[in-house]
Amino acid sequence: MARYDLIERMNRSFSALEIALQQLHQQLHALPLLAARVFSLPEIEKGTEHQPIDKIAVTATVGNNARDLGLRHFQRLFIHHQGQNTSSKAALRLPGVLCFSVTDKQLGQCENIIYQINQLKSELEHIITVESGLPSEQRFEFVHTHLHGLITLNTYRAITPLINPSSVRFGWANKHIIKNIPREEVLIQLNKSLNAGRAVAPFSREQWGELISQEINDVQRLPENTRLKIKRPVKVQPIARVWYQERQKQVQHPCPVPLIAFCQSQSAVELPKLGELTDYDASQIKHKYKPQAKPLHLLVPRLHLYVEKE
Predict the structure, then answer these.
(1) Domain with 40 in it: what CATH number?
(2) Domain span at residue 245?
(3) Would 303 be classed as within a structural domain?
(4) Is residue 136 predicted with pLDDT exceeding 90?
(5) Tell me, which GO biological process terms does this entry list (predicted)?
(6) Considering the domain boundaries, does residue 286 fall inside one?
(7) Are 43 and 88 in contact (CB under 8 A)?
(8) How far apart are CA 291 and CA 308, in angstroms?
(9) Domains in the chain, number
(10) Using omega within 30 degrees of 0 as the cis cutoff, is the peptide bond preceding 32 cis?
């Protein structure tokens, strides 16, 4: 019964999300467009998801066409919304910004629906990744049994509103996700994967069980106070740097989907200056000074799990 309730809540939340996204589309389309600029990136082909990315060609679109591309992008949540040869394991990205003129009342309405959308996105992510109790390798089957073809990465991504920004400029970020993780938490995750009794391609069920058992043994041999870290590389991501002149403040946002800038019609703030997202070329990156990190030993490669050396 508990699993049935979970599935019912997931479906109900997703239906509410689709309705709210359609409402946002209608609200924004009715607003006066001040400026819009989005940057289309090449879609990831099937089978190339894990290949290193050295170059990314960017195609810019402006004006009404950019607005229409951006509004459609917010609703691209399923595999059938993309090309036949496009990977379903890589989320679609469309960095950019859509700028609208709003009254106070219109701003409040838009902020309310965006808040509702982001709450539903967060709720869906929590249901799928936490409440389901499933290890990551089993979530795909769970989601696609009940929401066939859903691309969860697209579904989880929040929509970011900006209020009276002075400028929005774009760039690229290339980094790692680093997280300290207790030894016991790692063992709980590994045992959950082992007890699930399922395999992950290209392993057979027996081979997968042997691999997980070996990983459990490797972690159990560590002293209890061993410092463990997840250090997972993140592929290069588009970012936006937003400047607010009145507050003399800059805020950096990840930008996989268009930002929505609201410019209040009675405000003296000028139309924000919009930058360009240039092509990405890894060979042209100049790294700033980075402090020396503690040396790490790779323990479980598939989890990007490292032991911190003393």
Answers:
(1) 3.50.14.10
(2) 3-171+238-281
(3) no
(4) no
(5) DNA replication termination
(6) no
(7) no
(8) 16
(9) 1
(10) no
